[in-house]
Amino acid sequence: HGFSAVSTDRLSKVAGVSKSTIYKYFGDMAGVFAAVVRREGDNYQLGFDTLPGTADAFWASLVGFGDRLLTLLNQDFCMELDRMLHEEARKQPDLVRNFYDLAYGRGHSEVSRMIAHGKDKGFITKPQSAAD
Questions:
Q1: Distances in Å between the alpha carbon of 106 and those of 2, 88, 111, 119?
Q2: How far is CA 94 from CA 35, 81, 97, in A?
Q3: Torsions phi, psi for 19 (to 5 deg)
Q4: Is the pTM above the cut of 0.85?
């Protein structure tokens, strides 16, 4: 229905909780959205728990991250979310910025951290910075 069409009244009715419960745990609808985005990232393990000590483990971790990320991005709900965000961008620029930070920004930060580790260990020898 799009982000703007979902009210706390509607959400509380569908979820079977009071509006005060939504406000208590999430603050507002943007907080609900942020929690959903964080949870989906967590479900697909878009991060690295440990930094590998060998080149083989490093490359396996990096490939695994890419596989999990592509699996997430190819889910129907993810494509629908992308469409909804494009529609909401003008009305809700802060929502889209927050989504970027929680989703794409999170992935970029995690893969940059892993690449920096790979450069420090000598697994990657390219001169570009990890963030690039």
A1: 23, 21, 9, 20
A2: 15, 16, 5
A3: -60, -35
A4: no
Q: Are 58 and 123 in contact (CB under 8 A)?
A: yes
Query: Which residue has 């999990």 as its token pair?
Result: 68
- Nearest CA to 103 among 51, 40, 49, 28? 40
Q: How far apart are CA 31 and CA 11, in angstroms?
A: 13
Q: How far is it, in rounded angstroms, from Cα 8 to Cα 10?
A: 5
Structure tokens at 123: 């697994």
Please check whether residue 33 is in contact with residue 97, taking contact to mean a CB–CB distance below 8 angstroms. no
CA distance 80 to 86: 10
* pLDDT tens readout for residues 7-50: 889 899 999 999 999 999 999 888 888 888 888 777 766 677 78
Output helix, strand, coil percentages for the chain, rounded to the nearest 5. Answer: 70, 0, 30
